[in-house]
Amino acid sequence: MNNIHLNYLTAILFLANVSTTSLVNAKERVREKIAVHLSNQITVTKNNLIAVLQKEHNKNLLINLASKDSTRASDVISLVTKKNLVDLATAEPGCSFLCKLMEKNPDTTKHFIPLATENNIVDIAKTLQGIVFLITLIEKNPNVALHLISLVTENNFISLAKTNLGSYLLCRLMGEDPDTIPHFISFAENNLTDIVKTQKGSEFLYRLIEKNPDARQQIISCIINNLDKLIGSWSGRLLIERIIKIYPDVRQQIIPYITKNVTRLIESDSGTLLIEDIIEKNPDLVTENNFIDLIKTGPIFLFRLMKKDSRLIPHFTRLLEKNFTALLHDTEWKYSYIFDLLKEKELGHVEQFITLVEDNHDHQQQAKGCYYLLKQLVDNSDTLQKIFGINH
Questions:
Q1: Does the predicted model carry a pTM greater than 0.70?
Q2: pLDDT tens digits, one per residue of 346-383
Q3: Is the dihedral of CA 69, 72, 75, 79 positive or negative?
Q4: Beta bridge partners of residue 43, listed in sequence order
Q5: Which tens digit of pLDDT belongs to each residue from 293-320?
Q6: Max alpha carbon distance in the chain (Å)?
Q7: Domains in the chain and their CATH numbers?
Q8: Residues contacting 124, CB < 8 A, separation 6+
Q9: Cα dihedral across residues 27, 29, 34, 39: positive or negative
């Protein structure tokens, strides 16, 4: 008897389980087949929603249906899925359709929130419409900001920071929840050189510094530690120039690095432009020790500096005089940039150089090199030939 009751009970539980499973599956099948009838001719499904919305009349009908009662609203909202969210949110008329639904019924956001994931957040933020959708979502539901922040990972942070709209979203999220700032700063530090590869990424880092005074020195220290890599890119140089201009104390932090690496930095155009301004204001960075290398590496750089500020000429002239013998070893034409300028600005120095040549005239091979240099300054080649004893 007990066995009969036990079997009976087991059968009931089995049937109950089958019924429950069938019910859940049935609901899923219904959800998959949800359709909204706009008219006898038009039935809207998740697969044709975007096509139907192309007509303004259809869009308004759907919005009105969603406003009538909770059942119809649920049917309309259920047409929006993970699969079509990106296409809807990032272009019209999809974006305005989603935003209107949220305006009519803020509870709609509860359906949209889980559809935004760490895999599609970057794609949504690629267009202005996508940003409008996300911001509307944030404004209609205070919990959305925290959800979106949770979607920002180290991998997609880089992609967001390197675009104008993506960086705007990150800044907005920091404004919504200041506690997330250290989180984002950590991502920025770990991926600094990658982010700065684009101008938008560079601008984002500047905004990060500007909006977070407490973390400013932390980020600037990271930038200084990566100057080598940053100076190599135009956007990196622009970031450094901007920081130096706004925060004079940073200039003093960067100068020791410039002093140590000035010769190597001018090997790239971006490095040259970065330190040009710094050297102009700090001419002592060009020293007797690095002057020869600077001439060999970047005479045009020195030429431009002297042309920009003629007060640098006496300083550079003294360095030329101190290194004159070493200069005799090289006859490269590029020195003419320097000497042409000296001729133009300081004609009196010609006599000084001739005196230096006479002092070194016994070094015939070296003097031969100096002949070409001075020829840039003196038109009378007979005078030079007498000094050097060279026939050309």
A1: no
A2: 444 555 555 555 555 454 444 455 555 555 545 555 54
A3: negative
A4: 37
A5: 777 665 666 767 777 777 777 777 777 7
A6: 135
A7: 29-311 (1.25.10.10), 312-392 (no CATH)
A8: 85, 86, 89, 90, 116, 130, 133, 134
A9: negative
